[in-house]
Amino acid sequence: MMNRKLSWGVLGVASIARRAVIPGLLESQFNEVKALASRDVAKAKQAAEEFGIEKAYGSYEELIWDDAIDAVYIPLPNHLHREWAIRALQAGKHVLCEKPLALTAAEAEEMAAAAAASGKILAEAFMYRHHPRYDMIRSIIASGEIGDIRNIHATFTFNSSGGAGNVRFRKEWGGGSLYDIGCYPITAARLLLGQEPEAATVQALFSPEHDNVDMMASGLLEFPGNVAVKFDCGMWAASRNHLEILGIEGLIEIPSAFVAGPDQGANFFVTSKGVRREVEVPKVNQFSLECDDFARTVLFGEPQKFTPDDSIRNMRVIDACLRSAHERIRVELQPQPIRP
Question: Where are the domain boundaries for CATH 3.30.360.10 in the chain?
Fold first, then answer.
């Protein structure tokens, strides 16, 4: 049974697909890539040849109706996630969709409903959550070693401001730093605390040079128990990718908190009662782990690690952050526990 593999099709030749997810699928245990589609068939054929993929389609429609395909990965621009995820689900395919799952919580709810109606699996591609270090970090928090959490500070910034034609700079396409990388600190805070924020306050730089998308955003999320989560995300700033968890008795520091390649160290540091130690973490391909977790659910019926319900909750927070940034107000949310 463990020799079974999930057959994948990839919708589009986006950089994240070619640079990370397709290699991750090819290196994984339970997956194989059988087809790739692009609206430019020449690009599809070129990418298919690059990775040794059997089929290349000149339309997404052709791929989702290929009976040999079990699941599709969607790395399309954000505004196309809802449409093609629902179409793929209705065609009988399981779907792994790039983050953010949708542009709004309402769209995410539509996608979740389509998955439920089809009986297929829908997952959001937050690869970092499948890295073993986050289970290790959660265990340390649960052990009480750093005491009750008082504060989390997360950063994810880089400078791509000069990239002409970058889809991240198209407002109608779901561009902006909150959608693109702010979603990482937000989902990490929810994962580590196991709770939902009660309010969001965000200040953002909306750049006329970049179609008025938020090129930088800094936020405060208020969690139950007076726990504060501070985050900043940006596409027009020096590169940073760090997360710190501050407790009463100590702290946890996570360098390269979200981006950790298979050859890159993913160790983190724990300081408890004045003593700092480095925690060694295996070097793994977190994209392969993400895909294998997905395949285990489809092939062997293992529980889905992160359900569409979790994605809906994350989108509610992003909705609140965007509203706060645009209206310059504090936005209250209704705290809700995360379902298993």
Answer: 129-332
- What is the spatial distance between Cα 304 and Cα 310, in angstroms, rounded to a whole number? 11
99 a catalytic residue: yes
d(C-alpha 137, C-alpha 255), whole Å: 13
pTM for the whole thing?
Answer: 0.95
The reported pLDDT for the residue numbered 195 is: 95
Q: For the segment 218-246, what is each residue's pLDDT rounded down to a tens digit?
A: 999 999 999 999 999 999 999 999 999 99
Domain boundaries 129-332, CATH class: alpha beta
Order of all β-strands in the sheet with 213-223: 275-279, 268-272, 250-255, 236-247, 149-159, 227-234, 213-223, 199-207, 331-332
Distances (CA, A) of 200 to 1, 22, 152, 203: 47, 35, 14, 10
E-assigned strand segments in the chain: 6-11, 31-37, 55-57, 71-74, 94-98, 122-125, 149-159, 199-207, 213-223, 227-234, 236-247, 250-255, 268-272, 275-279, 331-332
Report residue 243 as tokens.
């997360």
Q: How many helices (H) and strands (E) does the chain have?
A: 11, 15
| DSSP 3-state of 311 | helix
Range list for CATH 3.40.50.720 in the chain:
6-125
Q: Between 3.40.190.10, 3.30.70.260, 3.40.50.300, 3.40.50.720, what CATH number should domain 6-125 receive?
A: 3.40.50.720
CA gap 67, 92 in Å, rounded:
9
Inter-residue contact 183 to 101 (CB < 8 Å): no
What's residue 118's pLDDT?
98
| Residue of 34, 99, 120, 230 marked catalytic | 99
Backbone angles phi, psi at 68, to 5 degrees: -80, -5
